[in-house]
Amino acid sequence: MKQTARSHSAGHGRLRRLRPLPTVLVAALGVIGAAAPSIAAPTADASPTPAAAKSSSASTTQTVTLVTGDRVIVTTVGGQTHYTIDPAVPGDAAFQSYRDAQGDYHVIPALAQPFLGSTLNPALFDITAELRAHAQTGPKSDAKSDAVAEVSPQSSARLVAALRQAIGADVRAGRRAGTTVPHLTGLPAAPRTAIAAAPATAAPGHPQRFLQVDVTDRSGHPANGTATLINTDSSLTFLYPVTINGGVDRVALPVGNYSILFDSETYDAQGDTTSGYVLTKTDFSVPATGTVPDVVLDGRTAVPVHVATPQAATAQLISVGWFRKDASARTAASAKAVVPDGGGGDPLGDPSIDFNYSATGNMPFAMNPQPAAKVGTLSSEVQWMGGDAKGTYRYDTAFTASDVPDISALKVTPAQLATEHNHYYTDPAAPKQGGVDEIPTDYANPLPVTMSALVPQSMPADVTEYLSVLPNAVWSQDAYDSANIEFVADPAVLKAGSTSSIDWGRGPLAPGVGRHTITPGANDASGYCQACLAGADLQLSFNDFNDSAPGQKGAAAFWPDASSAPQESTTMSGYQNGQLLGTTPNSSSFSISDAPAAGAQYKVVYDTSVTAPYLSESTSADTTLVFSTTPAAEAGAALTPLGSCTGQSPVTPCQVLPLLNINTQLAVSESGTAAAGTETMGLSIGHVSYNGTGSHAAITSAGVQVSFDGGKTWQTADLAQTGAATAGSYTASWTNPAADTGSYPSIRITATDAVGGSISQTVNNAYEIVKGA
Q1: What is the C-alpha to C-alpha distance for residues 442 and 210, in angstroms, rounded to an integer?
Q2: Residues 482-508, buried b or exposed e (16+ Cβ, 10 A)?
């Protein structure tokens, strides 16, 4: 299986395409949400923020389907956005991404890359513009205006076939890929709007010299691709890409010091992507007088990536980052004063080249070694994942450097690794294929991480994972189960030699707010409090599909096609001192901005239901929470300084709401099934917390009931304390009747604490009773 993704950002939004952009021949970017015959409303996750909420801590997930059928999953948490690509066809899964002069994020499939600017307009792949347009005006329906044309799996398949056929013809004839014009007859027509290309211009007042760039591919033949040059004295002087056709290009540059990156991919006679490679030169200069030496990039100097691991492993993911900054020190304000914004967003200080190439599967990738920077700074990162053929173990390794090392000689030893035992659960009605998304980040020197690709993972499964331990590094890990529920773990700082165990998607899945750990410098807004009070601002946001891990958040992610898209319904009602404040449909957040200073008692009732072909368990839940914000109830609940919340200020600190939560360990198989006979469930009643800050009120009661007839009748489970009387730790047990084999029991859990708080939660279809499970 081959899946690749390539991320390329230059100049923090100042990257400009230089090739001409003629009339668009294909109109539609794609649909937002699941792939469907027409544009649908944005597909949000299970916890959208209502209009009444202030800056939200809730996460939202939207899916943009490109004209090629590939999906871009856009997840925003606390205002930070991450892009994950789910390729429509693994063999066609190469991508380039970049931000344009306006700061819009583009994702371009490799099959479209050779035709960009000649047959296909880059605007087709502008993810940011599509989301912005839908949010502001919604889709248009007039095909004769600037309408978004209809996109369907059928039209995407026809377009992909046409692009592949054209590329394959060029490869067979020995021509540059993209020379043949693809046959697009019958595909959606486009508005005849020409887009002018931005010329390669330098900052005014700088003398210029012509530089010739000569590039050969890995076979020594003239190469085709894109090179990006940065003036390393000051990137405000020059930072642009140039197109290399036939192995050469000439460009006028201001005098000074420079760095260059070239990237390209190869195709076979069927039009499929077969490899990728990157060539860089850390430092070179354009002199004011005399001959300007050619810059020569020889693909034969690139070496294939290889990581030596304690056990044999085949590559599943390669991600290489190259980050080049100039020698100047600027603020955003000074940069804005010097350089116009190009008609788009505000420019940022310290523009740079931020390049990332990612490929899942065992697709070849190569890069040439280069020394550390003499002018400005250079940092490189390599992430490599590989495992055994049976899928029982894998390595996820990371390497950082201030140069470009020989990536064919990377190595990890057992002393450099932490061990995780991953247990992947899934719904019995779901397909057996999910995915994982894992990113290491150096929080002492954060680098832009905006795009990744899903690594396929069979489910259910048990996988032992060995992860690199680096100074100042945190690991962000997500798992998408086979039912396309995304589980996001708190970013973790790992210790060499440590061993841990993680359950992903273990049910019953239910709404809640967990017990979280905030890592210094974590880049996913994990420190934003989902249940906090700051002055008169009270904010409560649920995750709809939390699993058995206290520090994981579960939310609906993306769905393969319209037929499997969920029909979800939620209702949120809030009460203050017994008075109904309001009921909001399709919302998972409760917030007010006039909470009384003396405190009040609140009750929140949250009902959820979802139907989808891929979901047979945890299909609905009813949750009622009662809590108080009186000084006694809030005592000792100040949020950790690493966290933040709505309404926070230097004189208005955040207080974690004394909100009860439930954590279960139901004895089921990794397919969510249990046999007839004795059933057990570990139960932990606690409070919302961040690094331990939150209510520590004693748990005064707990109860578990089970229904085998859809909630018509309930039987009380036996409940045994497994810790101190007020610690909230129990083991529940009951009997699964043999007569109910093939049924889906419901579970109701109730609890109270010593400060007047209570929780009652019913999860319907919590698990399945299966003979011999």
Answers
A1: 39
A2: bbbbbbbbbbbbbeeeeeeebbbbbbb
- Tell me how far apart the alpha carbons of residues 532 and 482 are, in angstroms, rounded to a whole number: 33
Q: In degrees to the nearest 10, what's the CA dihedral of 673, 675, 679, 685? A: 0
Q: 200 vs 291, which has greater pLDDT?
A: 291
Backbone angles phi, psi at 745, to 5 degrees: -65, 160
With contact defined as beta carbons under 8 Å apart, do 15 and 348 qualify? no
- The 531-534 sheet, strands edge to edge: 589-592, 537-541, 531-534, 655-656
- Residue 304 CA to residue 46 CA, distance in Å, equals 42
Distances (CA, A) of 102 to 31, 108, 287, 332, 559: 22, 17, 32, 16, 30
Check: CB of residue 228 under 8 Å from CB of residue 353. yes
Which residues have C-beta within 8 Å of that of residue 163, sequence separation ≥ 6?
A: 68, 111, 112, 115, 182, 271
* Residue pLDDT, tens place only, 194-213: 334 444 555 566 788 999 99
221 - beta bridge partners?
none
pLDDT tens, residue by residue, 669-688: 999 999 999 999 999 999 99
Say how far apart CA 339 and CA 348 lie, in whole Å: 10
Give CA–CA dist 505/516, Å, rounded.
Answer: 17
Residue 657 one-letter amino acid: L
Task: Tell the burial category of 111 from Cβ atoms under 10 Å away from its Cβ (0-12, 13-18, 19+).
Answer: buried
- For the record, the structure tokens of 565 come out as 């898209």
pTM for the whole structure: 0.83
